Amino acid sequence: MAEFDPSDHPLIERVRQWADQDPDPATRSETERLLAAAASGDDDAMRELADAFGGRLAFGTAGLRGALGPGPRRMNRAVVIQTSAGFAEFLNERARRGDTASPPSIVVGYDGRINSDVFAHDVAAVMAGAGISATLFPEPVPTPALAFAVRHLGASAGVMVTASHNPPRDNGYKVYLGDADNGSQIIPPDDAAIAARIDAAAAQRIDSFARSDDFRVAGPELLDAYVASTAEAISAGSPATGRAGASLRIAYTAMHGVGSAPARRVWKLAGLPEVTTVPEQDHPDGTFPTVAFPNPEEPGALDLAFRTALDIAADLIVAHDPDADRLAIALPDDAAPEGYRRLTGNQLGFVLGWRAAERHRALHGDAPGALACTIVSSPALSVVADAYGLAYAETLSGFKWVSRVPNLVFGFEEALGYLTHPGVVRDKDGISASADVIALAAELATEGRTLADLLDDATERFGHFSSGQLTVRLDSADAVAALAEVVRSTPPTSFGGVAIERTSDLLTPGLAAEPANVLRYDLADGSRVMIRPSGTEPKLKVYIDTFSDTGSAGERREAADAALAALETAVQDFLNATVAS
Length: 581
Fold this sequence. Notes:
Blueprint lengths: L9 H12 L3 H15 L3 H11 L10 E4 L9 H21 L7 E6 L5 H14 L3 E4 L6 H10 L4 E5 L8 E8 L6 E2 L4 H13 L13 E2 L3 H15 L14 E4 L6 H10 L6 E2 L25 H10 L3 E5 L6 E6 L7 E3 L2 H20 L5 E5 L6 H8 L2 E5 L3 H4 L5 E6 L3 E3 L10 H17 L4 H12 L1 E10 L3 H13 L4 E2 L2 E8 L13 E5 L4 E6 L5 E10 L4 H28 L1
Helix pairs in contact: 1-2, 2-3, 4-5, 4-7, 6-8, 8-9, 9-14, 11-12, 15-17
């Protein structure tokens, strides 16, 4: 690298201006260290400054999420303050139009990640300074508890400071709206409107925003209400109370997150069996010392849960991600190296959807209802909906869409997200879903049966659905987008000799709630292939689903699995040839 001359580098002045306004001594000191290192010719420091200050962390339908550190492309107090000022202006504009109460109100929650509590206090203080009535949770809570609180308090909005199951050095800012949105995550065009207000706020000095300590710190009653409402919903229509299934042995991990205490309260109040916790992972710890990637889907994330389960000969493993909005379940399996196998999100979504349909019929008879999943999840719910006279919907990815399906009874996404009680929370909720699974396992245990037996029952009644994923990794997001365009412009007519009966391009207006870069292929044998670029990484993702309803449960499973393997090979060959061309 050529000798560094700060006076000739336009980035440096922006960095210095940021450091001058930064309210956090830690990130201000880190910025000054990087500046000094860059001035002495340190290439790595210059690259870090260019990355952290060369743009802005994008605000979208998932809010913000990024690595901790200084600069507008990192999660830090300055970014949180600017974001809150912009969001406050959006809420005040809504109030002036009469779209929400005047003054608006907001509830703020946070998880156990590094700086989550600091960021949450900044959110509350900026909101209060902007004339918005703010309520702050007094301690770290699960994300579904915040989503619940927006509706419970009749708030105009909610902010949850969390990065869910992201790596340890990440944090985020997740936005919910009340009123007509019923405590759901934001969707277009609100995301763009909020982003525009944030950009306007970012053009001002950080110290120009009013702050106030005139916000309410809630007592225990807010989390108590979530626990009580969730337990009541679980108990309705379920015989798994009292000592039902008391002999069931359950291993549980909170993955160093905030789920353990509230989840165990829900389970106890609903009369469900006690669990044996993974002690090293049972309390919030934002450093996540025992897992490199705190996501139950990741290899190795459940190793300590497997150990605990083997120690107690567990019938069931229950795992939450760090903010407890996702759920993983594992069952004993002698063929698995760890002695247990994790159910896929599609398998668990199928079973929970079936249970929700049964509960809806028992409690509400023939009243309208709907089962929903995202477009990249297994279509298995469709046969359950048909069997119970319920509507069926496939939405774009994300619970911001699933939660808005009319007359929703149950919704899920294959990435371990389940919305089992829309009357309580309008977002995925790993705590209520885990309670439903434990209740179901407890009921089966009284009959001498297991969840594995129930999966066989589902195959015999509805047919067997097999699901798989393929990934094509490329050098850049641009390369991925280009590959998707090649596939779109020269579409396949068959895979592995099986004709494609229908091709759907979800960029076509009217095929989805919002145009999406997703290609869907429905094959003549009932199989389905979905292709889309990843929204976060330079890779093309492919979702494949097959089905069989011929023969015994075992024969159906073997046929669907064989069809899946053949289709995966055919799709991989097609994509390899497309890349090579």
